């Protein structure tokens, strides 16, 4: 089981485009049109399934909000930080 990271560790390691919100990390991606956001959500869903670590994805008009936390561990772990980087690589 992965270690829950301290707030300081998360703030230190989290990429600039993401932010910490309590026990979650969050990023809102913006797109030129709605279906680009839908396609992106499908892409990152594939990545999540490959990693077997799953985000909360909210699809809005031209925006996709992604939230990550490690439910079993009860906080933010390396798994969440890794997935954030993998998701950003799908852009
Ligand atoms: C049984 C448990 O749900 C699974 O091991 C996986 C599935 N995907 C998961 N995703 C996330 N974000 N956190 C988990 O703890 C998690 N656990």
From TrEMBL:
Ranges that cross the membrane: none
Signal sequence, renumbered to the chain = none
Its GO biological process annotations read: tetrahydrobiopterin biosynthetic process
- Which InterPro entries does this one have? PCD_sf (IPR036428), Pterin_deHydtase (IPR001533)
> What keywords would UniProt list here?
Lyase
What EC number(s) is this enzyme filed under? 4.2.1.96
Q: What catalytic reaction does the record list?
A: (4aS,6R)-4a-hydroxy-L-erythro-5,6,7,8-tetrahydrobiopterin = (6R)-L-erythro-6,7-dihydrobiopterin + H2O
Entries under Pfam families matching the protein: Pterin_4a
List the GO molecular function terms.
4-alpha-hydroxytetrahydrobiopterin dehydratase activity
Q: Does the entry feature the keyword Methyltransferase, yes or no?
A: no
Domain of life of the native organism: Archaea
**Per the record's keyword annotation, is Lyase included, yes or no?**
yes
Spell out the family assignment given in the record's similarity comment: Belongs to the pterin-4-alpha-carbinolamine dehydratase family.
Q: What is this protein called?
A: 4a-hydroxytetrahydrobiopterin dehydratase
Source organism of the structure = Haloferax marinisediminis
């Amino acid at each position: 089981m992965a270690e829950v990271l301290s707030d300081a560790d998360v703030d230190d390691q989290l990429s600039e485009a993401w932010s910490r919100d309590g026990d979650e990390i969050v990023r809102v991606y913006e797109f030129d049109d709605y279906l680009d956001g839908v396609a992106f959500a499908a892409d990152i869903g594939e990545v999540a399934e490959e990693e077997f670590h799953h985000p909360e994805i909210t699809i809005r008009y031209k925006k996709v909000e992604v939230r990550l936390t490690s439910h079993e561990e009860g906080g933010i772990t390396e798994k969440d930080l890794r997935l954030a980087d993998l998701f950003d690589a799908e852009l």
